C-alpha cells in the first residue's frame, strides 16, 4: 500500500465524517445529486441511458427537494461510503500477492502490458479504481472478466443475481417470521415450553456452523425422505433447504431479540393501561405490544441482511447454487479483479439500499425516530 | 478466592463486602449458576485434553497410512481414521489447539481495537464520538465476509497452517460490538464524581481513562469477550469450508466431514467427532458468557440486548 492509497482512504474517511455537519442547503443539493447519480448507474442497465437519466434526474431532484434532512444525510453518506468500500476492496486486492496475469507462463513484459491495457488493469490500485469508475459511469459496464474468456462481468453476474436475491430474500423473510413468532411466544411466557424451544433454537444457532446444519438437512429431507432436491438449482423446491439453512442462525438471534423486547414491553405502563381499559389480551398483544417488541428487530434487519449475505457464501457452496457468492470466492482466489470488484459493488449497493429502506421503515414504525427525521 | 470469603460478604455485607471486593461477589454469583459452572468445567476439560493429551499419549495427527484408511472407531483408533489413514482422535485434539488459539487471539485483538475505539468515543464524546460511532454503524452493515476473504488473500503466500492470518482477519471484523459496549460504559461513567475528583487533582486524560474508567468497564468487556470467542471459531470454520482456512482446525475437520456426507458409504465419524467437540466448546463458551453476564454485569437482562453481535 503506497502513500497515495493511505492518503485517499484518509481523505475519503474525513469526507464521510464531514457529511454529519453539512449545512442543510448544501445537504439538499449533495443528497439529491448523489441520489440521482446512484439511480442513474443502477437503472442504466435496465432502462438504457436516456430513460434512466431522465428518471434519475427527476427522482434525484424530488429527493433533494422533498426528503427529510436526516434521510438526505444518510444518502449523502451512503454513496461515498459505497465508493470507499469498493476502493478498499481494490486496494486489498492489489496488496495480495499474485496478479491476474501471474500464471500466464512467463509472459514477456510487453504482452503483460498489452493485457493490462486491454482489461483495464493498471499496475496500481488507485489507477485501477479510476479506470473502473470511469468505465462504470461513462460506459455503464462492469468491464470484461479477466479469467472467464470472452465474457463480461455482467454476463456472469446477471444470471446469478436473481438466484442470490431470491435465496437471500426468502431466508430473510423466513428468519424474521420464525424468529418473531418464536420470540413473542417465548417472551409472553418466560420459562414455558415455547421459551425453552426458542432457547434451544438459539443454542443450535450459536453452536453449529450452518454448513453442518445444511448437510444434515440435506441428508434427512433430500436423501433420507426424498422430499426435496438435494442440491443444484431449478424450481422453487431447490430453494427450500438452502433458505432454511441460511435463515436458522439469524432466526435464532431474532428470536432472542424479540423475546427480550417482548418481556420489556409487557412491563410498560401503556400495556397496563390497555389492559385496564378492558382490552382482551389478544388485542393488547397484537395492537400495543407487537409494535414495541418489533422495534429492536427492525433495527437489526440491516445487520441481519449482512449476516445472511455472509452465510450465503457458505450455503451457495454447500448446495451447489449458482449465485453471486461463488463468483466472489472464485474471483478472489483467481485474482480476477473485475469479477471481485463487480460482485463487491453489487453486494454493497444492495446492502446500502436495504439499509436506507430499513431507516424509512423504522421512521414509519417509531414516532420518536419520525420526529427526528 | 475461597467460598468462605464469599460467604463472609453475604453474611456481613457492609465493610466486609467492600474489603472483599466486587470480584468475590461476582464469583459467588457465578458459582451459583449451574449452566455457567458446567460450561466452565467443560472448557477446562476440553482445553486441557487438547493441550495435554496428544503429548501424553504420543498421538500423531500427520503421518498417513494407506493400510488404515477410513476405519470406523475401534479400540486402536478411538475415533476412527480419515481418508488418508490418519488417526482422527489425534487430529481432533490437535485441531482443537488451533481453533482455541485462533478464538483467543482474535478475541484479544478485537478487545484491543474495541477498547481503543470505544474508549476514545465515550471519553471525548461530542464530535469524536459521533464520527467514530458513525463508522462503527457503517461497518456493522458491511457483510464482513468480504473483508475477511480479502484480508486472507494478503497472506496467501505464507505457509498454510499458520493461524496468524486467520486471527488477524477475524479480529479486524469482530471489534464492533466491543467498541459499542465500552463506549456506552465509559460514557455513563465519565460524569461520575470520582472522575471529577481525579480531574480536579490534576490527572491527565490518559490517566483517568486507564486508571479510573477502563477498570470499571472490565466486567462487560470480559463478558463480551467470552461471547466473541465462539463467533470467531464459527467464522474460522466458514473459512475452512470455503477452502481459505488453516490446515488443521476443528473447522477444517468439520468441513472435511461434511464433504464426505453421502448416502452410499457413511463415514459418519469424520463429521460426528469434530462436530461434537466444536459444538460442545461453543455451547460451553456461550453458557459461561451468559453466566458471566449475570454475575459481572447485573444490569444487563438475561435475554441480552447488550449482545448485538451478528448471530452466526
Strand content of chain B: under 5%
Largest interface: A-B, 66 and 50 residues
Q: What is the approximate shape of chain A?
A: globular
Largest sheet of chain A: none
Give the termini distance of chain A in whole angstroms: 40 Å
How is the main sheet of chain B built? Answer: none
Q: Provide the structure class of chain B.
A: mainly alpha
Shape of chain B: elongated
SSE pattern of chain A: HHHHHHHHHHHHHHH
Question: What class, by secondary structure content of chain A?
Answer: mainly alpha
Beta-sheet strand percentage of chain A? under 5%
Oligomeric state of this protein: heterodimer
Distance between the termini of chain B: 36 Å
Give the helix level of chain A as a range of percent: over 70%
Number of strands of chain A: 0
| pLDDT < 50 runs, ≥5 residues of chain A | none
Tell me the number of helical segments of chain B per DSSP (H or I, 4 or more residues long).
Answer: 13
Topology of helices and strands:
The complex is a heterodimer of chains A (373) and B (312).
Chain A: H1 3-18, H2 24-47, H3 49-66, H4 69-95, H5 109-119, H6 125-139, H7 153-188, H8 193-207, H9 210-224, H10 237-266, H11 269-276, H12 281-319, H13 324-334, H14 337-365, H15 367-372
Helix pairs in contact in A: 1-4, 2-3, 2-4, 4-6, 4-14, 7-8, 7-10, 7-12, 7-14, 8-10, 9-10, 9-12, 10-12, 11-12, 12-13, 12-14, 13-14
Chain B: H1 3-12, H2 14-32, H3 34-57, H4 88-124, H5 126-140, H6 144-154, H7 164-173, H8 176-189, H9 193-200, H10 205-213, H11 218-241, H12 250-259, H13 268-296
Brief rundown of the structure:
The complex is a heterodimer of chains A (373) and B (312). By secondary structure, chain A is mainly α. Helix content of chain A is 80%, strand content 0%.
Amino acid at each position: 500500500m503506497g502513500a497515495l492509497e493511505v492518503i485517499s482512504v484518509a481523505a475519503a474517511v474525513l469526507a464521510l465524517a464531514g457529511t454529519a455537519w453539512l449545512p442543510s442547503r448544501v445537504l439538499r443539493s449533495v443528497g439529491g445529486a448523489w441520489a440521482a447519480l446512484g439511480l442513474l448507474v443502477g437503472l442504466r442497465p435496465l432502462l438504457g441511458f436516456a430513460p434512466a437519466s431522465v428518471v434519475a434526474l427527476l427522482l434525484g431532484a424530488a429527493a433533494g427537494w422533498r426528503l427529510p434532512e436526516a434521510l438526505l444525510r444518510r444518502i449523502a453518506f451512503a454513496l461515498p461510503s459505497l465508493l470507499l468500500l469498493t476502493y478498499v476492496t481494490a486496494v486489498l486486492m492489489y496488496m495480495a500477492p499474485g496478479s491476474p496475469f501471474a500464471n500466464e507462463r512467463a509472459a514477456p513484459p510487453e504482452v503483460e502490458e498489452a493485457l493490462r491495457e486491454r482489461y483495464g488493469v493498471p499496475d496500481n490500485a488507485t489507477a485501477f479504481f479510476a479506470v473502473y469508475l470511469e468505465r462504470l459511469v461513462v460506459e455503464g459496464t462492469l468491464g470484461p472478466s479477466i479469467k472467464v474468456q470472452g465474457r463480461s462481468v455482467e454476463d456472469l453476474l446477471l444470471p446469478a443475481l436473481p438466484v442470490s436475491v431470491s435465496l437471500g430474500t426468502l431466508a430473510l423473510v423466513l428468519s424474521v417470521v420464525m424468529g418473531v413468532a418464536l420470540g413473542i411466544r417465548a417472551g409472553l411466557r418466560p420459562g414455558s415450553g415455547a421459551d425453552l424451544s426458542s432457547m434451544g433454537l438459539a443454542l443450535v444457532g450459536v453452536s453449529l456452523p450452518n454448513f453442518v446444519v445444511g448437510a444434515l438437512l440435506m441428508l434427512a429431507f433430500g436423501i433420507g425422505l426424498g422430499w426435496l432436491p438435494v442440491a443444484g438449482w431449478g424450481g422453487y423446491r431447490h430453494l427450500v433447504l438452502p433458505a432454511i439453512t441460511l435463515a436458522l442462525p439469524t432466526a435464532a438471534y431474532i428470536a432472542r431479540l424479540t423475546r427480550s423486547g417482548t418481556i420489556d414491553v409487557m412491563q410498560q405502563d401503556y400495556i397496563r393501561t390497555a389492559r385496564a381499559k378492558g382490552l382482551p389480551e389478544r388485542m393488547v398483544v397484537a395492537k400495543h405490544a407487537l409494535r414495541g417488541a418489533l422495534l429492536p428487530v427492525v433495527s437489526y434487519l440491516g445487520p441481519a441482511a449482512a449476516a445472511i449475505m455472509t452465510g450465503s457464501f457458505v450455503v451457495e457452496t454447500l448446495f451447489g447454487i449458482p449465485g453471486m457468492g461463488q463468483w466472489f470466492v472464485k474471483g478472489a482466489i483467481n485474482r480476477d479483479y473485475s469479477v471481485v470488484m463487480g460482485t463487491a459493488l453489487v453486494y454493497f449497493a444492495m446492502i446500502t439500499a436495504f439499509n436506507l429502506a430499513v431507516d424509512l421503515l423504522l421512521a414509519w414504525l417509531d414516532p420518536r425516530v419520525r420526529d427526528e427525521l | 478466592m475461597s467460598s468462605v470469603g464469599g460467604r463472609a460478604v453475604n453474611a456481613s455485607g457492609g465493610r466486609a463486602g467492600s474489603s472483599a471486593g466486587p470480584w468475590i461477589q461476582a464469583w459467588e454469583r457465578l458459582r451459583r449458576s449451574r449452566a455457567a459452572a458446567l460450561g466452565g468445567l467443560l472448557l477446562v476439560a476440553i482445553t486441557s485434553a487438547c493441550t495435554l493429551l496428544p503429548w501424553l499419549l504420543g498421538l500423531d495427527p500427520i503421518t498417513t497410512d494407506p493400510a488404515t484408511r477410513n476405519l470406523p472407531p475401534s479400540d486402536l483408533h478411538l475415533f476412527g481414521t480419515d481418508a488418508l489413514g490418519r488417526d482422527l482422535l489425534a487430529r481432533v485434539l490437535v485441531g482443537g489447539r488451533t481453533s482455541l488459539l485462533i478464538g483467543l487471539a482474535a478475541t484479544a485483538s478485537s478487545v484491543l481495537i474495541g477498547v481503543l475505539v470505544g474508549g476514545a468515543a465515550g471519553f471525548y464524546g461530542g464530535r469524536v464520538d459521533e464520527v467514530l460511532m458513525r463508522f462503527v454503524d457503517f461497518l456493522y452493515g458491511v457483510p464482513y465476509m468480504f473483508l475477511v476473504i480479502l484480508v486472507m488473500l494478503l497472506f496467501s503466500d505464507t505457509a498454510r497452517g499458520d493461524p496468524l492470518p486467520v486471527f488477524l482477519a477475524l479480529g479486524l471484523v469482530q471489534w464492533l460490538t466491543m467498541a459499542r459496549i465500552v463506549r456506552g460504559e465509559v460514557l455513563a461513567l465519565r460524569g461520575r464524581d470520582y472522575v471529577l475528583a481525579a480531574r480536579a487533582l490534576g490527572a491527565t486524560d490518559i490517566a483517568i481513562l486507564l486508571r479510573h474508567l477502563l477498570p470499571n468497564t472490565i466486567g462487560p468487556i470480559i463478558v463480551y469477550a467470552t461471547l466473541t470467542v465462539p463467533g470467531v471459531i464459527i467464522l474460522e470454520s466458514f473459512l475452512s469450508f470455503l477452502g481459505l482456512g488453516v490446515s488443521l482446525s476443528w473447522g477444517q475437520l468439520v468441513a472435511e466431514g461434511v464433504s464426505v456426507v453421502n448416502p452410499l458409504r457413511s463415514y459418519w465419524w469424520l463429521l460426528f467427532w469434530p462436530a461434537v467437540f466444536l459444538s460442545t466448546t461453543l455451547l460451553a463458551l456461550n453458557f459461561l458468557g451468559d453466566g458471566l453476564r449475570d454475575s459481572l454485569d447485573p444490569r444487563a437482562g438475561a435475554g441480552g440486548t447488550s449482545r448485538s453481535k451478528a448471530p452466526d
